[in-house]
Amino acid sequence: MKINLRENKKLQTLKGWGTSACWWSQYCADEKVADEIAELLYGDSGLGLNIYRYNIGGGTDPENCRVKNPWRVTESFYKYDRETAEGEYDFSADKTAINMMRKCLKKGNVDTLIVFANSPHYSLTSTGQASGSLINHTCNLPMSNYRKFADYFLTCTQALIDMGFPVKYVSPINEPQWKWGGSYVWQEGCHYETEEMVAVYHIFAEEIIKRRMDVKLYGPETGEMMGKTPEYIKAITADETIMKVMDIFAYHSYHDDNNPKVRLEFKKEIVEKYPQFRFDMSEWCELPNKSHTKNFKGALITARVIGQDLIYAGAESWTSWVAVNQFSIKEDGNDYSDATITATNDFSDWYVARRYWGFAHFAKYIPINSVCLDNGFFPDENNDFNAFSFLTPKGETVTVVVNEGEERTLKIDGDYKEMKVIQSVDGDYLNEIYNGDFKEKITVKPNSILTLIME
After folding, report:
1. Which of 205, 325, 326, 431 has the fewest CB atoms within 10 Å, i.e. the most exposed one?
2. Global confidence as pTM
3. Total number of domains constituting the chain
C-alpha cells in the first residue's frame, strides 16, 4: 500500500467537526455528568468539536402523541392549549438541554451553532402530532401554516440569540424524502415534496430578510447523498430569494457506508457542479447499526466513513448524528446504541462507545482550516484499507489510516523529518506508539486506526 504526499493535490478546506444534542441533552440533568460529557465532546481534552446542532422540537401533546419513546420527542418553548387553540412562549423551557448547550459552548471551541427541526410544532400540523402525517410520504404541514411555522421557528431562534447563543444557521427541514408517519411512528419527522420544501424555504428566507436576522438557511439535510439530492439542489438554486440567505448545502451520508464510489459520484454530480455552496455532511451514524458499543468495528467503520466523506465526497465539515443515545440492549446481550456515548434514560449509567475513538482520530488531530489532500490512494473492492491525508494550518501533514483487514505495510512517498504515530486497537486507544525520525514504511496492525503526524 502506497500514498503520495510529495505530489499531492490540495482539495477543500475543512470547516470543522460536530455532533447533535438531539434528543439526549434534555435528559442530562446531573451537573457532574453533563460537565464530563461536555468535555468529552467539546473540550480540549476531548474531541474539541466546533459545530453544535440544537433541536427546536415540535413539542409533545400528551393526549395526542403516538411516539412512545421519550427520547424521540422534544420539549418546546411554545406551550399550546388544545381547548382554547391558543398558546404562549415560555423561554425558560427545555432548561436541561439549554444548560447542556451552555456548558459545551463555554469550552470555547464552538464557532458554528445550528438550530434545526425534525418537525414543525405539533399545533401547526395536520395531525396535531410532530411525528408525521397519517399517510406515508405526505406533508404534515398545511400550506396555510407555512408562514406560522417560520414565525415559530424564527421566534425561538431569536430567543436563543437573545439568551446569548451565537446562532449562525437555521435548518427547519430534516430528511424531507422519507415517509415520516403512517401507521407506525418512532420519532419526530415531517415529509416534504420538493415543491413543498422550496415553498417553506422561500418563506423562511423572506422572514429572515424582513426581520434582519443575522442567520442563514441551512439544509435541506437530505437523508442520502444521491437519490432526491440532485432534484433538491436544482430547485433550491432556482429560487433567488432562498439563495440570498443560503450558502451551505447540508446532506447526510446514510445507507452507503461501504460504497466509496457513490461519494465520488456525489462530488462529480453535486459538489463540482454547484461551487456556490459549501457542502456539510451534517448527520451520520452506522445504519443499520451492526456494531455494538463495545465492538471496535464501530470505530473502524466510523473512521472509514469520515475519511471517505471528506476526501471522496468533498464534505467541508463532518457531524455525527446524536452525541449520546440510549442503551439499546438486543437479544445477544450487547448494547447497539448508535452514538459516540451511550446512557440509561436518566444518565445514572453511561460510557464512551468504541466508535468515539474512530471520530477522535480525526477531530483531535486535524484542526479547522486544514486542507484535504489527494494522496493518490483509493481502496480496492474489499474497502478494508484506507488512508486519508490533510495539511494543517501549522504545516503538518496528517494521515489517518484505517485497516479493517490483515496486517499491512504502508509506504509513504514524502519529504519529512519527523513523525508521530497515534494508534488505536481494541482496548487501547489513542496510544502514541512512535515519536521520532520520519519513516517511509509503517506497519499497520489488523483492525487498527493510525493517525500519522509528519513535519
Report:
1. 431
2. 0.97
3. 1
